[in-house]
């Protein structure tokens, strides 16, 4: 059935009206798009974290103040030194500090660190200026030039960050579950003692047993040193308890006198996962260290009395060109000189 002829005159004006409506709609849309432009997609950004062991979230940071980072090399003690030095020098130079994912993986499971993490993609895209550091603070480090600086070396000296001590201690505060585990372990050693004083003892051996005499003209701690150090605390405190951790525990069991019943061999001695040993020592009242950055950081965090092995290299040791004892050990710490006779006699 065909439409009546009377519809034909009405159809033409209707089509014309629809055509004009489409044109007006497109015109309005184009004007609005100019007034409110669509946001452009952001470039790949940094990973930022507040110290959680989990994978840090992706954010877009403000980089007007520059981006500084530090190499992530060595084990726990070295990583802590690199982190604290970056934290202090970046703040000193008015720059924003970021850590590498490798450093986050080592430190974040143990400590409540707060520096944001820079992703590997961003690391590769930035023209870094590598800036080598000595193992002690110099005046020139207060005026480091460059907006994108990557600090290098093995810095571990209180001279970099001691003016920010409380902030550094906060950065290296432990997660609650680690604190609780360490305190439970120490409580189990108390026994019937009423006035117990916990002394953490870290005996660094491992590769140092070979490296120190063969390369650095130095020695590691011996039996006599440990007896002197422990004797100091036995004479000063009524009921000391010595908590021994080491990466050479067999040597410790053979050379540390346990006849008094106040020595406990603890920890697993695994250099690949030293967080548990470190936390145990850091929750003691005082520290006996031998050599190495691990023991230095234990003493720094504990804050009690610290005894360290002093003068453990020959005067002509090349080690003294890269390491300054006065910049490593706090002035109030107590040094006991090492026995260098094995070096001099060639044994």
UniProtKB/TrEMBL annotation:
Transmembrane segments: 16-36
GO-annotated cellular components: Golgi cisterna membrane
Keyword line: Glycoprotein, Glycosyltransferase, Golgi apparatus, Membrane, Signal-anchor, Transferase, Transmembrane, Transmembrane helix
Membrane topology type: Single-pass type II membrane protein
Pfam families in the record: Glyco_transf_11
Family per similarity comment: Belongs to the glycosyltransferase 11 family.
Pathway the protein contributes to: Protein modification; protein glycosylation
Highest classification ranks of the organism: Eukaryota, Metazoa, Chordata, Craniata, Vertebrata
Record GO terms (molecular function): galactoside 2-alpha-L-fucosyltransferase activity
EC number: 2.4.1.-
InterPro entries given in the database record: Glyco_trans_11
Gene Ontology BP, a term: carbohydrate metabolic process
Protein name in UniProt: L-Fucosyltransferase
Name of the top EC class for this enzyme: transferase
Catalytic reactions on record: a ganglioside GM1 + GDP-beta-L-fucose = a ganglioside Fuc-GM1 + GDP + H(+)
């Amino acid at each position: 059935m065909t439409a009546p002829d009377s519809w034909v005159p009405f159809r033409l004006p209707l089509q014309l009206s629809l055509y004009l409506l489409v044109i007006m709609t497109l015109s309005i849309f184009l004007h609005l798009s100019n007034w409110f432009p669509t946001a452009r997609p952001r470039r790949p950004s940094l990973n930022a974290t507040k110290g959680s062991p989990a994978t840090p979230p992706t954010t877009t940071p403000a980089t007007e103040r520059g981006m500084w980072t530090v190499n992530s090399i060595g084990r726990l003690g070295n990583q802590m030194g690199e982190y604290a030095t970056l934290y202090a020098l970046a703040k000193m130079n008015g720059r924003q500090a970021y850590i590498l994912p490798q450093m986050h993986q080592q430190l974040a499971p143990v400590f409540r660190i707060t520096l944001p993490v820079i992703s590997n993609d961003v690391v590769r895209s930035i023209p870094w200026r590598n800036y080598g550091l000595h193992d002690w603070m110099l005046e020139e480090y207060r005026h480091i030039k460059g907006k994108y600086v990557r600090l290098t070396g093995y810095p571990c000296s209180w001279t970099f960050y001691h003016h920010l001590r409380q902030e550094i201690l906060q950065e290296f505060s432990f997660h609650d579950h680690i604190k609780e585990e360490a305190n439970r372990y120490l409580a189990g050693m108390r026994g019937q003692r009423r006035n117990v004083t916990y002394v953490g003892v870290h005996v660094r051996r491992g590769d140092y047993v070979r490296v120190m005499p063969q390369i650095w003209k130095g020695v590691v701690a011996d039996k006599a040193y440990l007896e002197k150090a422990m004797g100091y605390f036995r004479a000063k405190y009524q009921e000391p308890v010595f908590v021994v951790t080491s990466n050479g525990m067999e040597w410790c069991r053979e050379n540390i006198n346990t006849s008094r019943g106040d020595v406990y061999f603890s920890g697993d001695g695994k250099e690949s996962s030293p967080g548990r040993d470190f936390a145990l020592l850091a929750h003691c009242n005082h520290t006996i260290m031998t050599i190495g950055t691990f023991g230095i950081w234990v003493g720094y965090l504990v804050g009690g009395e610290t005894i360290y092995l002093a003068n453990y290299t020959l005067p002509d040791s090349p080690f003294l060109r890269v390491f300054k004892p006065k910049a490593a050990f706090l002035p109030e710490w107590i040094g006991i000189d090492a026995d260098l006779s094995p070096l001099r006699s060639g044994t």
